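step=encode ok
step=design start
structure_in=
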């Protein structure tokens, strides 16, 4: 495969440029992962009779590859990031396609582990490529558009599920096979249509943990812990407590997608205009409120309309997480992006390895307490966001930093 320096990529046709590859990968991933997520809660309850503890353990298994994302650094010793990203997407597509073939607790654990390896290694590499290939002045806006592109692609799949699930009596196997197959088709196109792009800043291929990135690491840790509660239990609540069926859960996802398509590009402009500090403060303040209200659904018996509204708002706030990416892009040495992306993914998933299983047991006793804990975590994130300077850059990573040449460690 021909290698093209990033500086020469502008001379290529639009359909062979790096930004086009990023958009296609942004489309391919959610076709499998978002469809898998939309059907998961109904599938595990109907096919494998999962309870709150079972779903907690399933998501713990799903997060193990995220915790081991630091292994990407070793793989990059023998493989380019671009190649690893496409291979990871292919594994995600295959695992999604065969999910319905394993309607048991053990079978779902294994296929979930495989799909998770593909998802997390792709996400690690994709974040690195985005921050290397997108110019700093346009990164927030472009990240917003990439997020919107993924939402738009998934929109088509969800509309089809909502409109045809009952009308044509679709099976889980058909939907999983179709979504995984589409991901594989896009991966095959990307593998043959694009050259290998060479970044002007060679990436350090060793473990890196720098003191001056400590705030970024802390924000990643809290984001990972907090996200698990939403991913694992928010959708599960809609099925277990309110009896949502597949087409109803998918309709909720559909609303999220439409909102993301409209809001994500706007959020990109908001981050570019008001800065990462203000954007993250707004996000975490909103999440504290949302999680407290989630708890009220259980503590005070508030209804399904409020729960569904909170689900959509929760998802919208998470779109502002692109500010965390651009914060790191501004403070990082260019050669640190790939190894730090791997380290950050591992840090992001430390809590994810044990939290879903533990909270699964708490869910059996007090579901409202699970969301109360999430509100506390979002409060810690809010405090950390206040430590981000208004103009982050190397040497000015936190409000405690003295503007000076960036230290080596």
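sequence_out=
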């Amino acid at each position: 495969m021909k290698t093209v320096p990033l500086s020469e990529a502008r001379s290529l046709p639009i359909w062979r440029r790096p930004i086009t590859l990023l958009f296609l990968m942004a489309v391919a991933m959610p076709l499998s992962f978002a469809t898998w997520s939309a059907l998961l809660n109904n599938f595990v309850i109907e096919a494998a009779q999962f309870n709150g503890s079972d779903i907690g353990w399933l998501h713990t298994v799903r997060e193990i590859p995220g915790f081991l994302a630091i292994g990407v650094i070793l793989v990059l010793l023998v493989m380019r990031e671009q190649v690893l990203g496409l291979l990871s997407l292919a594994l995600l597509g295959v695992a999604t396609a065969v999910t319905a073939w394993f309607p048991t607790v053990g079978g779902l654990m294994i296929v979930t582990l495989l799909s998770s390896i593909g998802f997390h290694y792709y996400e690690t590499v994709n974040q690195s490529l985005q921050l290397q290939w997108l110019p700093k002045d346009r990164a927030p806006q472009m990240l917003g558009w990439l997020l919107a592109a993924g939402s738009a692609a998934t929109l088509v799949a969800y509309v089809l599920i909502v409109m045809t699930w009952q009308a044509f009596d679709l099976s889980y196997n058909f939907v999983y096979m179709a979504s995984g197959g589409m991901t594989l088709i896009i991966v095959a196109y990307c593998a043959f249509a694009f050259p290998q792009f060479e970044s002007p800043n060679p990436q350090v291929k060793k473990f890196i943990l720098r003191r001056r990135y400590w705030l970024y690491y802390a924000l990643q840790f809290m984001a990972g812990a907090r996200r698990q509660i939403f991913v694992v239990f928010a959708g599960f609540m809609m099925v277990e407590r309110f009896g949502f069926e597949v087409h109803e859960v998918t309709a909720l996802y559909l609303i999220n997608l439409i909102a993301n398509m409209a809001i994500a590009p706007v959020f990109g402009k908001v981050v570019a205009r008001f800065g990462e500090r203000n954007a993250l403060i707004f996000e975490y303040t909103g999440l504290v409120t949302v999680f407290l209200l989630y708890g009220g659904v259980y503590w005070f018996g508030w209804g399904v309309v409020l729960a569904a509204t909170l689900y959509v708002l929760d998802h919208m706030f998470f779109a502002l997480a692109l500010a965390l990416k651009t914060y790191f892009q501004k403070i990082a040495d260019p050669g640190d992006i790939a190894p730090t992306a791997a380290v950050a993914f591992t840090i992001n998933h430390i809590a994810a390895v044990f939290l879903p299983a533990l909270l699964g047991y708490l869910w059996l006793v007090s579901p409202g307490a699970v969301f109360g804990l999430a509100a506390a975590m979002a409060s810690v994130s809010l405090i950390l966001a206040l430590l981000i300077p208004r103009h982050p850059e190397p040497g000015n990573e936190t409000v405690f930093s003295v503007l000076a040449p960036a230290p080596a460690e």
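step=design ok
step=annotate ok -> The beta strands are 3-5, 196-198.
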